[in-house]
Each structure stands twice: as structure tokens, then as C-alpha cells.
Design brief:
single chain, about 250 residues, alpha+beta, Jelly Rolls, Arc Repressor Mutant, subunit A, 4-stranded antiparallel beta sheet, 11 helices, about 45% helix
């Protein structure tokens, strides 16, 4: 299953069974069974979960909201924050981490992904205490509350157009307000972002169908469409024929 999104908060993820690939604009990371990672909240990526041969994919995710982190770090004196922030960080295996996730898993299995509020706060505090004990660099990300700085919009969009995220999130990740993003986008591409994204995604989909011989059912997610119906309709309106007709003609 593919899920395309940004990470809304810093996330601590432990994979119990199966594996997961995380693909951003530059790199693909593979998280295997019994591995633990931290995801930066500014990450924009595609997540693919792979079940094990005899067991479904299983993981536990802990999200650190900025409200919680600011409250936690308010009374802690820190050294200057290192600005070299990683998108994905693999943590070394540690008994404290395994104990943490083993204690949370039964609640996931019995109650879904929502823990009782009082238990959530306890586990968040436990998690961040463990992280700071086993990795002294973790504060560089968790205690950094600055938003993304203003970056080159053209380069960013050409690298990340295939990720299915809202326009306001693209604006945030390029260090702009929504109004500034739309204004700068028009200057850079000479058309509004929604129209450019649609055309760019359809052009890439056509390339993948005709040159890479991929299936329409695989292509629509890869290029940033949320569902196949919208992809197929948009494709036909733009090219005059359906994506399925390309596969049928081969």
C-alpha cells in the first residue's frame, strides 16, 4: 500500500514485522523488521508497506506534536541547535526502545491506534527521555521549532511535484505563505500551481505508460493522484484517450 504525504509531526516508528520503504525526492530508505527510525516533520515522501511472507505488516508510530515538545523543552537548557537536520534517522537497536514499543503494542492491537490521553502523555515523556539517553543528537531535530526557510521554488517543485500533498503544504515547505507561494509560482511557471501540477503529473504518467510499460493502476499513485478515477478522467481529457487504452494496445 502506498501513502504519499508529508510527516505532520516528528515521528518515532518501530517496525515489528514486514518492512517499509520511504522514498523522498533524493533517496529511498528501507526499514526492516525490528528497526526503529525518526522522521523529520518536514519530510515529504512516499511510504510503501511490505508484509512479511507469513504475517501482515505491523508497526507502531509515536508522534511528537510541537505543543508537547515546546512544553517538554521549556525548562531544559540546550546547546545551540545544529542546523544540519536529517529527514530520516535510523536508531541503533536498544533494549529501552524495544521495551517502550513492546509496552505500547497491546494497546494498538486492542484499541486501534488511539491510546488513552493520560497514557499518551506518559508514553511521550518516556519516549523522548529514552531517545535523549541513547542519542545525544536527537535534540537537534526535536527541539528545533523553526519553520522551513525560504528556498528556490522552481527547483523544489520540479523535484517534488509527484507527491500528493495540498498546495498550502507545498507553500509551507518552501518557506512561503500561500499567497506568496501562488504569486512566486506564477512568476516561475507562468501558470497557477494546480494547473501546472496536473499537466506535469499527466505528462509523467504518459511517459511511464508508454516508455516504461507500467500499469495504469500503478502509475496514478506514483505521479501524485489520489484515486484512479480522477487520474483516468483527467488523462482522457488531456490526451483524448484513456490510460488503459495504452496498455491494451501493447
Amino acid at each position: 500500500m502506498n501513502v504519499e504525504n508529508t510527516v505532520p509531526e516528528h515521528a518515532l516508528v518501530h517496525v515489528f514485522s514486514g518492512s517499509m520503504t520511504i522514498t523522498d525526492a533524493d533517496t529511498t530508505y528501507t526499514v526492516n523488521e525490528n528497526e526503529t527510525i525518526i522522521l523529520n516533520k518536514h519530510l515529504i515522501a512516499k511510504f510503501t508497506k511490505h508484509p512479511a511472507l507469513d504475517e501482515q505488516f505491523k508497526s507502531v508510530t509515536i508522534l511528537f506534536s510541537q505543543v508537547f515538545l515546546q512544553k517538554y523543552y521549556a525548562s531544559i537548557k540546550l546547546n545551540p541547535i545544529n542546523k544540519n537536520l536529517w529527514p530520516v534517522k535510523f536508531l541503533q537497536k536498544h533494549s529501552l526502545l524495544h521495551s517502550l514499543f513492546d509496552s505500547i503494542l497491546p494497546y494498538y492491537e486492542l484499541h486501534g491506534e488511539e491510546l488513552p490521553q493520560n497514557l499518551t502523555e506518559i508514553k511521550l515523556s518516556e519516549a523522548i527521555t529514552i531517545l535523549r539517553a541513547i542519542d545525544t543528537s536527537i535534540d537537534c531535530v526535536l527541539a528545533n521549532f523553526a519553520g522551513p526557510g525560504k528556498i528556490d521554488l522552481t527547483e523544489f517543485m520540479i523535484k517534488n511535484y509527484s507527491f500528493n500533498i495540498p498546495i498550502d503544504r507545498f507553500a509551507y515547505l518552501t518557506g512561503r505563505s500561500l499567497a506568496s507561494f501562488k504569486r512566486d509560482f506564477q512568476k516561475s511557471f507562468n501558470e497557477p500551481p494546480q494547473r501546472w501540477l496536473l499537466k506535469k503529473r499527466l505528462k509523467q504518467a504518459h511517459y511511464l505508460l508508454t516508455n516504461k510499460y507500467q500499469k495504469p493502476s500503478d502509475v496514478y499513485l506514483e505521479v501524485g493522484f489520489e484515486n484512479f478515477s480522477h487520474f483516468s478522467t483527467s488523462f482522457k481529457q488531456h490526451f483524448g484517450y484513456t490510460p488503459s487504452s495504452i496498455a491494451m494496445s501493447r
